[in-house]
Amino acid sequence: MVDHAPVSGTPLGAEEPISDYDRIGGGRAVSAVVDRFYESVLADPQLAPFFVETDVNRLKRHQVLLISQVMGGPADYDGRSLRDPHDGLNISSNDFGRVVTHLVTALQEASVPGDVIGRLGTQLGAAEKDVVQAVAD
After folding, report:
1. Coil, helix or strand for 71?
2. Could you give the CA distance from residue 130 to residue 128 in angstroms, rounded to a whole number?
3. Exposed/middle/buried for 31, CB within 10 Å: 0-12, 13-18, 19+?
4. Cβ density class 82-117: b for 16+ within 10 Å, e for less
5. Which residue has the higher pLDDT, 116 or 8?
6. Is residue 96 a contact partner of residue 86, using CB atoms and an 8 Å limit?
7. H helices of 18-89, where?
8. In this prediction, what percent of the chain has a pLDDT beyond 70?
9. What average pLDDT does the segment 98-107 reach?
10. Distance of CA 7 to CAs 10, 16, 72, 100, Å?
């Protein structure tokens, strides 16, 4: 019989796997990445018009929750589906690609390991079908 830790169910003496969220420094690190990401996106002349009538602080809070959840953090993203807030914005695959580039750059600037960036990119890349609505770039 194997002894187990009372809460996690992990055998005593075994190490808990560390989440990507914890690996990069938790909530403060995610918040810093999101701040840098939106600074970059809002400075991009192709993307800035999408945010003219947007409460960016509210959007940042939602983005922190979403990224935290995807990275295995304690946050529960309870925002709308990604399709709803992007509906009618006529976002192209080129626009989406630019957003991804800004996010990857913000993550790299924060020294997030490449394997973590790759996993996050895979998860968020799956959302492209919910965000992109323009037929052609």
Report:
1. coil
2. 5
3. middle
4. beeebeeeebbeebbebbeebbbebbeebebeeebb
5. 116
6. no
7. 20-24, 26-42, 56-70, 83-86
8. 84
9. 95
10. 8, 12, 18, 37
Give Cα separations from 2 to 6, 9, 11, 47 (angstroms): 12, 10, 7, 55
CA-CA distance, 44 to 97, in Å (whole number)?
Answer: 13
Q: Is the pLDDT of residue 10 over 60?
A: no
DSSP string for residues in 93-108 = HHHHHHHHHHHHHHHH
What pLDDT shows up at residue 17?
84
Answer yes or no: are the C-beta atoms of 30 and 66 closer than 8 Å.
no
pLDDT at 85: 80
Residue showing tokens 């939602």:
62
Give pLDDT tens digits for 37-86. Answer: 999 999 999 999 999 989 999 999 989 998 999 899 987 777 667 777 88
What Cα–Cα distance (Å) separates residue 3 from each residue in 6, 9, 10, 16, 17?
9, 9, 9, 15, 18
Domain 25-131 is found in CATH 1.10.490.10: yes
Task: State the greatest distance between any 2 C-alpha atoms of the chain, in Å, as a whole number.
Answer: 62
- Which residue in this structure is represented by tokens 């960016």? 56
Question: pTM higher than 0.70 for the full model?
Answer: yes
